[in-house]
Specification:
single chain, six-stranded antiparallel beta sheet, D-amino Acid Aminotransferase, Chain A, domain 1
């Protein structure tokens, strides 16, 4: 029997979220793998390979130190997926760009992982939460990603946003089909992958706003190059197409699935789980 050590930053949060990895772990168990779930890095177990499932934008240094302990570490070199790292379309206060813009957190997914970590200690967490709630959103470190504000131009962006290092301003580059907005998602694990497009009436597409989706064929080569540059072995890239160009909007090392996916979630997870063979030594 082979062992796989899965490292998470917060085991309680890991248990509550609809991570694709939960379904993939079931596939591996059925295939004879023994799963060793580890919170943090204090007591890393012996294993044939490791997988870092750390739901934070930047990988803490102690996780990077695991690279020399195991024959193979999935996502061991995917250090930074912040917007300032992945985006080619950020806007500064002095840019000549005149089109619509969107305000996002530099942190992945509105900073949800960092927020959970900040509030984890009960008493101190409650105090921090109370203080954070009093801050105007333009001075906040966290936002709800589904509510990122969109403006017709950068001149409409509140002045405080430009001075907040936790926020970024990005060109709002939407892909449309008729009246509907489109979002493409490439999910991959090793050499296994899924590529799909979803449609919504809402400009910021989340699982609860999707009105239809379909699988796509080939993944743009520019995205593959960006995956190699970011060193992401397992994850999800959100992107749109503009004039034949793939524009990366978001990179995620800990993909989740929505309830609307239904039985397809297990089907997709089985496909992705088979990508584990690429990491066996």
């Amino acid at each position: 029997m082979s062992d796989i050590a899965i490292f998470v930053d917060d085991s309680h949060r890991f248990a509550r979220q609809h991570y694709f990895l939960h379904l993939m772990m079931e596939e591996w168990r059925h295939a004879g793998w023994r799963i060793r779930l580890c919170e943090g890095t204090r007591r890393p177990p012996d294993a044939d390979l490791a997988l870092l499932h750390v739901d934070l934008t930047r990988l803490p240094d102690d996780y990077l130190d695991l690279a020399g302990r195991y024959p193979s570490v999935v996502n061991g070199a995917a250090v930074d997926i912040s917007k300032r790292r992945i985006s080619r379309y950020l806007v500064t206060r002095d840019d000549a760009y005149a089109g619509p813009v969107i305000v996002k957190t530099d942190a992945n997914c509105g900073g949800i992982g960092e927020r959970a970590r900040r509030y984890r200690v009960p008493l101190l967490g409650r105090l921090r939460r109370s203080l954070d709630r009093r801050r105007h959103w333009t001075r906040a470190a966290f936002l709800t990603s589904g509510d990122y504000p969109i403006y017709p131009g950068k001149e409409a962006v509140p002045a405080a946003v430009w001075d907040n290092p936790a926020l970024v301003v990005e060109r709002f580059l939407a892909e449309r089909r008729g009246s509907q907005y489109c979002l493409r998602q490439w999910v991959f694990f090793g050499e296994r992958e899924l590529n799909k497009i979803s449609y919504s009436e809402h400009p910021i597409i989340k699982a609860n706003t999707v009105i239809g989706s379909e699988l796509l064929g080939e993944v743009p080569e520019t995205l593959r190059a960006m995956r190699a540059e970011l060193a992401v072995d397992y994850g999800k890239f959100d992107y749109v197409m503009q004039d034949g160009e793939a524009i990366l909007l978001d990179a995620n090392r800990t993909p989740t699935y929505g309830n609307r996916l239904g039985p397809k979630a297990a089907e997709y997870a089985a496909l992705l789980a088979s990508g584990l063979t690429a990491f066996q030594r």
